[in-house]
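Go through this one:
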Amino acid sequence: MIDAETKRALRVNPAYETITGRSCHSLIDDPFSYLEIIHPDDRSQVLAKFEKGAGSGGFDERFRIVRPDGKIRWVWVRGFPVRDSAGKISRLVGTALDITRQREAEEQVERNLALARAACAEAKALRKATLGLTQDLRMNYVLDTLLQSLTELISCEYARVLLLDGDSRLLVAREKLVQQPRGNRSDGPVVLDSNEFPFFQYVATDQHSVLISDTQHEVKWRACEGHADIRSWLCVPLVAARETVGVLSIGHSQPNSFTEEHLRLGKSLAIPAAAAIQNARLYERAAIYSSELEKRLFHIDAAEKAIELAEGHRKISEEKFHTVFRASPLPFSITSADEGRFVDVNPAFELRYGYSRDELIGNTVRELRIWENLSDGDLMMMYLSHNAPIRNVITRLRTKSGDIKLTAYSADWIQFDGCSCIFAVSQDLLPFDSRSRN
Protein backbone atom coordinates (compact mmCIF):
# COMPACT_ATOMS: atom_id res chain seq x y z
CA MET A 1 0.00 0.00 0.00
CA ILE A 2 1.39 3.43 -1.09
CA ASP A 3 0.32 6.96 -0.26
CA ALA A 4 -1.05 8.38 -3.51
CA GLU A 5 0.30 11.86 -2.90
CA THR A 6 3.73 11.31 -1.35
CA LYS A 7 4.43 7.86 -2.92
CA ARG A 8 5.59 6.61 0.48
CA ALA A 9 5.24 2.91 1.11
CA LEU A 10 2.79 2.38 3.96
CA ARG A 11 2.49 -1.38 4.20
CA VAL A 12 3.91 -4.51 2.61
CA ASN A 13 3.42 -8.22 3.24
CA PRO A 14 6.22 -10.80 3.80
CA ALA A 15 6.20 -11.87 0.13
CA TYR A 16 8.15 -8.63 -0.50
CA GLU A 17 11.19 -10.33 1.02
CA THR A 18 10.79 -13.47 -1.16
CA ILE A 19 10.53 -11.55 -4.41
CA THR A 20 12.97 -8.67 -3.87
CA GLY A 21 15.44 -10.29 -1.48
CA ARG A 22 15.09 -7.27 0.85
CA SER A 23 13.52 -7.24 4.30
CA CYS A 24 10.20 -5.62 5.06
CA HIS A 25 11.94 -3.54 7.77
CA SER A 26 14.20 -2.00 5.13
CA LEU A 27 11.14 -0.65 3.37
CA ILE A 28 9.67 0.68 6.64
CA ASP A 29 12.98 2.37 7.45
CA ASP A 30 13.16 3.87 3.95
CA PRO A 31 9.65 4.08 2.47
CA PHE A 32 11.02 5.09 -0.96
CA SER A 33 13.59 2.29 -1.24
CA TYR A 34 11.21 0.23 -3.40
CA LEU A 35 12.00 2.62 -6.25
CA GLU A 36 15.68 1.67 -6.15
CA ILE A 37 15.06 -2.02 -6.84
CA ILE A 38 13.72 -1.24 -10.33
CA HIS A 39 16.24 -2.12 -13.05
CA PRO A 40 18.04 1.06 -14.22
CA ASP A 41 17.05 0.44 -17.85
CA ASP A 42 13.36 0.20 -16.90
CA ARG A 43 13.23 2.77 -14.10
CA SER A 44 12.36 5.95 -16.00
CA GLN A 45 9.58 4.28 -17.97
CA VAL A 46 8.12 2.56 -14.89
CA LEU A 47 8.18 5.76 -12.81
CA ALA A 48 6.46 7.70 -15.56
CA LYS A 49 3.71 5.07 -15.73
CA PHE A 50 3.52 5.04 -11.93
CA GLU A 51 3.09 8.80 -11.80
CA LYS A 52 0.34 8.60 -14.36
CA GLY A 53 -1.30 5.74 -12.47
CA ALA A 54 -1.29 7.74 -9.26
CA GLY A 55 -3.67 10.19 -10.89
CA SER A 56 -5.91 7.68 -12.61
CA GLY A 57 -5.58 4.96 -10.03
CA GLY A 58 -4.66 2.26 -12.56
CA PHE A 59 -1.26 0.61 -12.98
CA ASP A 60 -0.36 -2.53 -14.95
CA GLU A 61 3.26 -3.01 -15.93
CA ARG A 62 5.86 -5.75 -16.40
CA PHE A 63 9.45 -4.78 -15.63
CA ARG A 64 12.72 -5.99 -14.16
CA ILE A 65 14.01 -5.64 -10.62
CA VAL A 66 17.53 -6.21 -9.26
CA ARG A 67 18.02 -8.25 -6.10
CA PRO A 68 20.88 -7.49 -3.67
CA ASP A 69 22.85 -10.48 -5.04
CA GLY A 70 22.72 -8.93 -8.51
CA LYS A 71 20.20 -11.38 -9.92
CA ILE A 72 17.52 -9.95 -12.17
CA ARG A 73 13.88 -10.94 -11.76
CA TRP A 74 10.80 -10.04 -13.79
CA VAL A 75 7.69 -8.84 -11.94
CA TRP A 76 4.15 -8.05 -12.98
CA VAL A 77 2.80 -5.18 -10.89
CA ARG A 78 -0.87 -4.24 -10.94
CA GLY A 79 -2.47 -1.46 -8.83
CA PHE A 80 -5.87 0.02 -8.16
CA PRO A 81 -7.01 3.13 -6.23
CA VAL A 82 -8.53 3.50 -2.76
CA ARG A 83 -10.63 6.65 -2.41
CA ASP A 84 -11.54 8.61 0.71
CA SER A 85 -15.04 9.75 1.66
CA ALA A 86 -14.71 12.70 -0.69
CA GLY A 87 -13.90 10.43 -3.61
CA LYS A 88 -10.27 11.49 -3.81
CA ILE A 89 -7.60 8.84 -4.42
CA SER A 90 -5.74 8.54 -1.14
CA ARG A 91 -4.04 5.17 -1.43
CA LEU A 92 -2.68 2.90 -4.14
CA VAL A 93 -2.93 -0.79 -3.43
CA GLY A 94 -1.17 -3.24 -5.67
CA THR A 95 0.23 -6.72 -6.11
CA ALA A 96 3.58 -7.85 -7.52
CA LEU A 97 3.84 -11.26 -9.12
CA ASP A 98 7.22 -12.89 -9.91
CA ILE A 99 6.95 -13.84 -13.60
CA THR A 100 10.65 -14.60 -14.19
CA ARG A 101 10.08 -18.19 -15.31
CA GLN A 102 7.19 -17.18 -17.51
CA ARG A 103 9.30 -14.44 -19.08
CA GLU A 104 12.21 -16.82 -19.66
CA ALA A 105 9.82 -19.29 -21.28
CA GLU A 106 8.42 -16.53 -23.52
CA GLU A 107 11.93 -15.47 -24.52
CA GLN A 108 12.85 -19.08 -25.26
CA VAL A 109 9.75 -19.37 -27.42
CA GLU A 110 10.78 -16.18 -29.23
CA ARG A 111 14.26 -17.54 -29.79
CA ASN A 112 12.86 -20.81 -31.08
CA LEU A 113 10.48 -18.96 -33.38
CA ALA A 114 13.35 -16.82 -34.66
CA LEU A 115 15.41 -19.95 -35.31
CA ALA A 116 12.45 -21.58 -37.02
CA ARG A 117 11.90 -18.52 -39.21
CA ALA A 118 15.60 -18.41 -40.06
CA ALA A 119 15.64 -22.14 -40.84
CA CYS A 120 12.53 -21.75 -43.00
CA ALA A 121 14.06 -18.82 -44.88
CA GLU A 122 17.30 -20.76 -45.33
CA ALA A 123 15.47 -23.86 -46.55
CA LYS A 124 13.49 -21.73 -48.98
CA ALA A 125 16.63 -20.05 -50.29
CA LEU A 126 18.46 -23.38 -50.65
CA ARG A 127 15.46 -24.97 -52.34
CA LYS A 128 15.31 -22.05 -54.77
CA ALA A 129 19.05 -22.36 -55.41
CA THR A 130 18.83 -26.12 -55.93
CA LEU A 131 15.93 -25.80 -58.35
CA GLY A 132 17.73 -23.04 -60.20
CA LEU A 133 20.90 -25.11 -60.49
CA THR A 134 19.03 -28.07 -61.98
CA GLN A 135 16.79 -26.21 -64.44
CA ASP A 136 19.42 -25.97 -67.16
CA LEU A 137 22.46 -28.17 -67.78
CA ARG A 138 24.44 -25.53 -69.64
CA MET A 139 27.56 -24.57 -67.72
CA ASN A 140 27.11 -20.80 -68.18
CA TYR A 141 23.61 -20.96 -66.72
CA VAL A 142 24.77 -23.10 -63.77
CA LEU A 143 27.63 -20.73 -62.91
CA ASP A 144 25.45 -17.60 -63.17
CA THR A 145 22.79 -19.17 -60.95
CA LEU A 146 25.39 -20.33 -58.44
CA LEU A 147 26.94 -16.87 -58.07
CA GLN A 148 23.53 -15.25 -57.65
CA SER A 149 22.44 -17.83 -55.05
CA LEU A 150 25.72 -17.45 -53.17
CA THR A 151 25.42 -13.66 -52.85
CA GLU A 152 21.75 -13.94 -51.83
CA LEU A 153 22.53 -16.40 -49.03
CA ILE A 154 25.65 -14.67 -47.71
CA SER A 155 26.02 -10.89 -47.75
CA CYS A 156 29.51 -10.12 -49.03
CA GLU A 157 31.59 -7.69 -51.07
CA TYR A 158 33.61 -10.30 -52.94
CA ALA A 159 32.38 -13.63 -54.28
CA ARG A 160 34.05 -16.03 -56.68
CA VAL A 161 33.32 -19.41 -58.19
CA LEU A 162 36.62 -21.07 -59.08
CA LEU A 163 36.82 -24.31 -61.05
CA LEU A 164 39.70 -26.73 -60.59
CA ASP A 165 41.63 -27.39 -63.79
CA GLY A 166 44.15 -30.16 -63.32
CA ASP A 167 45.76 -30.74 -59.94
CA SER A 168 46.28 -27.16 -58.78
CA ARG A 169 45.05 -24.59 -61.33
CA LEU A 170 41.97 -22.64 -60.20
CA LEU A 171 40.12 -20.79 -62.94
CA VAL A 172 37.90 -17.87 -61.85
CA ALA A 173 34.70 -18.85 -63.67
CA ARG A 174 32.38 -16.24 -62.10
CA GLU A 175 32.92 -13.36 -59.69
CA LYS A 176 31.27 -10.42 -57.97
CA LEU A 177 33.52 -7.56 -56.87
CA VAL A 178 31.93 -4.56 -55.12
CA GLN A 179 35.18 -2.63 -55.48
CA GLN A 180 37.24 -2.91 -58.62
CA PRO A 181 40.77 -4.14 -57.91
CA ARG A 182 43.46 -1.51 -57.74
CA GLY A 183 46.17 -1.43 -60.38
CA ASN A 184 46.22 -3.08 -63.79
CA ARG A 185 44.14 -6.19 -64.18
CA SER A 186 44.74 -8.85 -66.80
CA ASP A 187 42.29 -8.91 -69.70
CA GLY A 188 41.96 -12.69 -69.78
CA PRO A 189 40.43 -15.00 -67.20
CA VAL A 190 42.08 -15.00 -63.77
CA VAL A 191 43.93 -18.25 -63.09
CA LEU A 192 45.41 -19.08 -59.69
CA ASP A 193 47.85 -21.79 -58.73
CA SER A 194 46.63 -23.20 -55.43
CA ASN A 195 50.21 -24.22 -54.59
CA GLU A 196 51.03 -20.52 -54.26
CA PHE A 197 48.13 -19.82 -51.87
CA PRO A 198 48.23 -22.03 -48.74
CA PHE A 199 44.57 -21.62 -47.86
CA PHE A 200 43.36 -22.34 -51.40
CA GLN A 201 45.57 -25.42 -51.43
CA TYR A 202 44.11 -26.52 -48.08
CA VAL A 203 40.54 -26.16 -49.38
CA ALA A 204 41.06 -27.66 -52.85
CA THR A 205 43.39 -30.51 -51.89
CA ASP A 206 42.23 -31.48 -48.39
CA GLN A 207 38.58 -30.58 -49.06
CA HIS A 208 38.28 -28.60 -45.81
CA SER A 209 36.39 -25.33 -45.42
CA VAL A 210 38.11 -22.21 -44.06
CA LEU A 211 36.78 -19.24 -42.08
CA ILE A 212 39.16 -16.35 -41.35
CA SER A 213 37.88 -13.55 -39.11
CA ASP A 214 40.74 -11.17 -39.94
CA THR A 215 43.27 -11.89 -42.67
CA GLN A 216 45.75 -9.43 -41.13
CA HIS A 217 46.17 -11.80 -38.21
CA GLU A 218 46.89 -14.82 -40.44
CA VAL A 219 50.59 -15.34 -41.15
CA LYS A 220 49.90 -17.69 -44.10
CA TRP A 221 47.36 -15.39 -45.74
CA ARG A 222 48.32 -14.24 -49.21
CA ALA A 223 46.06 -11.91 -51.18
CA CYS A 224 45.35 -12.75 -54.81
CA GLU A 225 44.18 -10.62 -57.73
CA GLY A 226 40.84 -8.99 -56.92
CA HIS A 227 41.07 -9.87 -53.21
CA ALA A 228 43.70 -7.39 -51.99
CA ASP A 229 41.32 -5.57 -49.61
CA ILE A 230 39.77 -8.63 -48.02
CA ARG A 231 39.76 -8.76 -44.21
CA SER A 232 37.11 -11.44 -43.62
CA TRP A 233 37.18 -14.55 -45.80
CA LEU A 234 35.54 -17.92 -46.03
CA CYS A 235 36.11 -20.63 -48.61
CA VAL A 236 34.23 -23.88 -49.22
CA PRO A 237 35.24 -26.78 -51.50
CA LEU A 238 32.92 -28.00 -54.25
CA VAL A 239 33.10 -31.79 -54.03
CA ALA A 240 31.29 -34.24 -56.33
CA ALA A 241 31.86 -38.00 -56.17
CA ARG A 242 34.70 -37.35 -53.68
CA GLU A 243 36.58 -35.22 -56.21
CA THR A 244 37.11 -31.46 -55.91
CA VAL A 245 35.59 -29.66 -58.90
CA GLY A 246 36.16 -26.14 -57.56
CA VAL A 247 35.80 -23.79 -54.59
CA LEU A 248 33.52 -20.97 -53.43
CA SER A 249 35.47 -17.93 -52.23
CA ILE A 250 33.65 -15.18 -50.28
CA GLY A 251 35.20 -12.04 -48.81
CA HIS A 252 34.51 -8.73 -47.08
CA SER A 253 36.64 -5.65 -46.49
CA GLN A 254 35.60 -5.49 -42.82
CA PRO A 255 36.99 -7.96 -40.24
CA ASN A 256 34.68 -10.34 -38.38
CA SER A 257 32.01 -10.07 -41.09
CA PHE A 258 31.40 -13.82 -41.32
CA THR A 259 30.35 -16.35 -38.69
CA GLU A 260 30.11 -20.10 -38.39
CA GLU A 261 26.51 -19.74 -39.56
CA HIS A 262 27.69 -18.17 -42.83
CA LEU A 263 30.17 -21.00 -43.24
CA ARG A 264 27.39 -23.54 -42.69
CA LEU A 265 25.26 -21.84 -45.36
CA GLY A 266 28.19 -21.97 -47.79
CA LYS A 267 28.62 -25.69 -47.14
CA SER A 268 24.91 -26.31 -47.67
CA LEU A 269 24.97 -24.51 -51.03
CA ALA A 270 28.17 -26.29 -52.10
CA ILE A 271 26.46 -29.70 -52.14
CA PRO A 272 23.92 -29.04 -54.95
CA ALA A 273 26.36 -26.65 -56.65
CA ALA A 274 29.08 -29.29 -57.05
CA ALA A 275 26.56 -31.79 -58.43
CA ALA A 276 25.23 -29.20 -60.91
CA ILE A 277 28.75 -28.34 -62.14
CA GLN A 278 29.56 -32.03 -62.55
CA ASN A 279 26.33 -32.60 -64.50
CA ALA A 280 27.05 -29.58 -66.69
CA ARG A 281 30.46 -31.00 -67.54
CA LEU A 282 28.94 -34.36 -68.40
CA TYR A 283 26.36 -32.59 -70.55
CA GLU A 284 29.11 -30.77 -72.48
CA ARG A 285 31.01 -34.01 -72.98
CA ALA A 286 27.85 -35.75 -74.11
CA ALA A 287 27.32 -33.06 -76.73
CA ILE A 288 30.85 -33.61 -78.02
CA TYR A 289 30.41 -37.38 -77.99
CA SER A 290 27.09 -37.04 -79.81
CA SER A 291 28.75 -35.13 -82.63
CA GLU A 292 31.56 -37.64 -82.79
CA LEU A 293 29.09 -40.50 -82.67
CA GLU A 294 27.27 -39.19 -85.72
CA LYS A 295 30.53 -39.20 -87.66
CA ARG A 296 31.39 -42.71 -86.56
CA LEU A 297 27.93 -44.02 -87.30
CA PHE A 298 28.36 -42.63 -90.81
CA HIS A 299 31.50 -44.75 -91.20
CA ILE A 300 29.72 -47.76 -89.74
CA ASP A 301 26.89 -47.28 -92.21
CA ALA A 302 29.42 -47.15 -95.00
CA ALA A 303 30.93 -50.40 -93.74
CA GLU A 304 27.50 -52.04 -93.63
CA LYS A 305 26.92 -51.06 -97.21
CA ALA A 306 30.27 -52.56 -98.05
CA ILE A 307 29.10 -55.80 -96.40
CA GLU A 308 25.90 -55.75 -98.43
CA LEU A 309 27.79 -55.13 -101.62
CA ALA A 310 30.37 -57.79 -100.85
CA GLU A 311 28.05 -60.55 -99.68
CA GLY A 312 24.43 -59.69 -100.39
CA HIS A 313 24.63 -58.64 -104.01
CA ARG A 314 28.01 -60.04 -105.05
CA LYS A 315 28.70 -56.85 -107.00
CA ILE A 316 32.35 -56.55 -106.10
CA SER A 317 35.09 -59.02 -106.69
CA GLU A 318 36.93 -60.92 -104.00
CA GLU A 319 39.99 -58.82 -104.74
CA LYS A 320 38.09 -55.60 -104.06
CA PHE A 321 36.62 -57.09 -100.91
CA HIS A 322 40.13 -57.83 -99.59
CA THR A 323 41.22 -54.31 -100.53
CA VAL A 324 38.34 -52.79 -98.56
CA PHE A 325 38.92 -55.24 -95.71
CA ARG A 326 42.60 -54.32 -95.33
CA ALA A 327 42.34 -50.58 -95.95
CA SER A 328 39.27 -49.80 -93.84
CA PRO A 329 39.87 -47.65 -90.70
CA LEU A 330 37.11 -49.66 -88.98
CA PRO A 331 37.99 -52.90 -87.13
CA PHE A 332 36.87 -55.92 -89.26
CA SER A 333 37.01 -59.54 -88.16
CA ILE A 334 36.05 -62.88 -89.71
CA THR A 335 35.35 -65.82 -87.41
CA SER A 336 34.19 -69.37 -88.09
CA ALA A 337 30.44 -69.87 -87.68
CA ASP A 338 30.68 -73.11 -85.70
CA GLU A 339 33.39 -72.31 -83.11
CA GLY A 340 33.87 -68.55 -83.29
CA ARG A 341 37.53 -69.10 -84.21
CA PHE A 342 39.33 -66.14 -85.80
CA VAL A 343 39.93 -66.64 -89.52
CA ASP A 344 41.14 -63.17 -90.38
CA VAL A 345 41.30 -59.60 -89.00
CA ASN A 346 42.31 -56.30 -90.56
CA PRO A 347 45.04 -53.90 -89.27
CA ALA A 348 42.40 -51.64 -87.68
CA PHE A 349 41.25 -54.57 -85.54
CA GLU A 350 44.85 -55.25 -84.41
CA LEU A 351 45.27 -51.58 -83.49
CA ARG A 352 42.04 -51.38 -81.52
CA TYR A 353 42.37 -54.58 -79.51
CA GLY A 354 46.13 -54.75 -79.11
CA TYR A 355 46.52 -58.26 -80.55
CA SER A 356 48.67 -59.10 -83.55
CA ARG A 357 47.01 -61.02 -86.37
CA ASP A 358 49.12 -64.10 -85.56
CA GLU A 359 47.91 -64.04 -81.93
CA LEU A 360 44.29 -64.07 -83.07
CA ILE A 361 44.18 -66.51 -85.99
CA GLY A 362 43.19 -69.96 -84.79
CA ASN A 363 41.99 -68.83 -81.34
CA THR A 364 38.36 -68.44 -80.39
CA VAL A 365 36.65 -65.32 -79.13
CA ARG A 366 35.90 -67.13 -75.85
CA GLU A 367 39.50 -68.24 -75.33
CA LEU A 368 40.71 -64.66 -75.64
CA ARG A 369 37.79 -63.33 -73.51
CA ILE A 370 36.97 -60.65 -76.05
CA TRP A 371 33.38 -60.33 -74.77
CA GLU A 372 33.18 -58.69 -71.35
CA ASN A 373 29.97 -60.64 -70.77
CA LEU A 374 29.87 -64.03 -72.48
CA SER A 375 26.09 -63.83 -72.52
CA ASP A 376 26.38 -60.93 -75.00
CA GLY A 377 28.24 -63.16 -77.43
CA ASP A 378 25.66 -65.94 -77.01
CA LEU A 379 22.89 -63.43 -77.71
CA MET A 380 24.61 -62.29 -80.93
CA MET A 381 24.91 -65.90 -82.13
CA MET A 382 21.23 -66.47 -81.38
CA TYR A 383 20.27 -63.52 -83.57
CA LEU A 384 22.52 -64.69 -86.38
CA SER A 385 21.19 -68.24 -86.11
CA HIS A 386 17.75 -66.84 -86.94
CA ASN A 387 19.21 -65.14 -90.03
CA ALA A 388 18.83 -61.73 -88.38
CA PRO A 389 21.76 -59.44 -89.21
CA ILE A 390 23.12 -57.48 -86.24
CA ARG A 391 23.16 -53.73 -86.70
CA ASN A 392 24.74 -51.29 -84.20
CA VAL A 393 24.13 -53.31 -81.05
CA ILE A 394 25.81 -51.57 -78.10
CA THR A 395 28.08 -53.92 -76.16
CA ARG A 396 31.42 -54.01 -74.32
CA LEU A 397 34.52 -55.72 -75.69
CA ARG A 398 37.85 -56.34 -73.94
CA THR A 399 41.27 -55.47 -75.35
CA LYS A 400 44.45 -57.45 -74.79
CA SER A 401 45.45 -55.06 -71.98
CA GLY A 402 42.13 -55.60 -70.22
CA ASP A 403 40.56 -52.24 -71.05
CA ILE A 404 36.86 -52.35 -71.79
CA LYS A 405 35.59 -50.49 -74.86
CA LEU A 406 32.00 -49.42 -75.40
CA THR A 407 31.28 -50.67 -78.91
CA ALA A 408 28.73 -50.47 -81.70
CA TYR A 409 28.75 -54.06 -83.03
CA SER A 410 27.44 -55.17 -86.42
CA ALA A 411 27.71 -58.67 -87.94
CA ASP A 412 26.31 -60.93 -90.68
CA TRP A 413 26.96 -64.28 -92.37
CA ILE A 414 29.40 -64.52 -95.27
CA GLN A 415 31.04 -67.28 -97.27
CA PHE A 416 34.82 -67.02 -96.88
CA ASP A 417 37.17 -69.47 -98.53
CA GLY A 418 34.22 -71.79 -99.03
CA CYS A 419 33.25 -71.81 -95.34
CA SER A 420 30.35 -70.24 -93.48
CA CYS A 421 31.76 -67.40 -91.39
CA ILE A 422 30.71 -64.32 -89.46
CA PHE A 423 31.87 -60.96 -90.73
CA ALA A 424 31.84 -58.36 -87.88
CA VAL A 425 32.48 -54.63 -87.54
CA SER A 426 33.21 -53.19 -84.07
CA GLN A 427 33.72 -49.49 -83.50
CA ASP A 428 34.14 -47.25 -80.45
CA LEU A 429 31.16 -45.15 -79.44
CA LEU A 430 33.06 -43.04 -76.90
CA PRO A 431 36.13 -43.41 -74.69
CA PHE A 432 35.43 -46.06 -72.06
CA ASP A 433 37.66 -48.21 -69.91
CA SER A 434 37.31 -50.40 -66.88
CA ARG A 435 38.37 -47.62 -64.54
CA SER A 436 35.73 -45.15 -65.75
CA ARG A 437 32.90 -47.53 -64.83
CA ASN A 438 33.42 -46.71 -61.19
Q: What stands out?
A: The radius of gyration is 42 Å. The longest strand covers residues 404-416.
